[in-house]
């Protein structure tokens, strides 16, 4: 497409231009920000100018984003490599009809949500008890999309939690389950086995360990087990009766699944009403995504900024920096959402991609990151586009000094990244510090910040359940738009298979039941070391 070439040339041409200069034009922030109600995305601190923005918007239009989006919402099988519809949006839809293979899926969605609510209410009210009494703790066993969404959301909504305590076990490392279960009264603990396929080795191994631990603590070991899965026949084989199985269809991808049964732990923690508010928030973002013109469309704009930085400017990573402690797991959640979705090398038409398919996503909450890796962001040789998130009001100690300092730090960082500190200013500082001559020059150079480093800032009034829904749906649709523009399928994940298969074949070698013959030299060397000990 010609426009790719034009954008590449544009990126090259503006490489040396200072972002700060763009503010000399009147009212840049208004032209380079967009809102949905009181949520606002500011991307004015990027090197995108009017011409670039208009080219990027044309790129989105020419790539068929609107048609693909409509196909997704309509239940068409856009996940072509797996022959599946992509309908996580149906899980948060309150009304309407969504047809898959000639059947309206919405009645099933509503029924499952109601069953989840009845169960969550029963757990929270004490109508459903453990063998030792009212449920005090919930352990969610799952991995990837069956862990990251609920773990992130339960932490994000900690200020709204009034149900049993929720714990999350994902790693097959025995330390994870032992540390989570140790100290719990298992007779009042509910175990949720969350696995779309109900075959994932980490989850099933942890579930079996939990069942064995339960067997030592109570008479009926599976009476306090619940399953969340689309493989309902397998849950029965594990011993969990149908009334405690919450199923979902194959049109819900693992990393897009927190809106349905996989969100049960969220619902138990914060209550069905707050869970519904999360869904409402996501649905509001869905409506915005479907109806707002691209120039005002938050997911489209966020995607275009992302493409500009990674594909056109060539910045290989992106930092997500929530100035919101409760969003501490958001970077990890987004790592799966973005990198499992778009970490691809082959386009839908079978051709090799000629551009990178997306950045490495990483991050930590501010202000902690400032005291760890921001040094590299400010003075390291590579440019790291930063995505800041911050609320006008905190959930705890709302408008106290804590929050003022948090916000001040967030704004200070994006400002510092953009403006930097020149050699002249650094020299003045050194002169004031009493240095002169060669020593002044030497010291001043270390105090220069190149600046001109791009960032976006997403601001919102407060991290409420509804706002969380909006934020997560915003990122989901951003990934979708990027995927469509790149021409890839964002909804499969074949890249995780090979490692799984090899792990399966190495287990018997480690256990001494199979020879290491035929393995590569390095793996044999490591096996020899590990087996000897
Ligand atoms: O890592 C691959 C993956 O399939 C993810 O996409 C998924 O979220 C995770 O494993 C867990 O899968 P399941 O829910 O089937 O246990």
Automatic annotation (TrEMBL):
Gene Ontology cellular-component terms listed: cytosol
Gene Ontology MF terms in the entry: carbohydrate derivative binding; glucose-6-phosphate isomerase activity; monosaccharide binding
Primary site of residence: cytoplasm
Catalyzed reaction equations: alpha-D-glucose 6-phosphate = beta-D-fructose 6-phosphate
UniProt entry tagged with the keyword Protein transport: no
EC number: 5.3.1.9
Gene3D superfamilies assigned: 1.10.1390.10, Glucose-6-phosphate isomerase like protein, domain 1 (3.40.50.10490)
Protein name stated in the entry: Glucose-6-phosphate isomerase
Species name: Actibacterium naphthalenivorans
Name of the gene: pgi
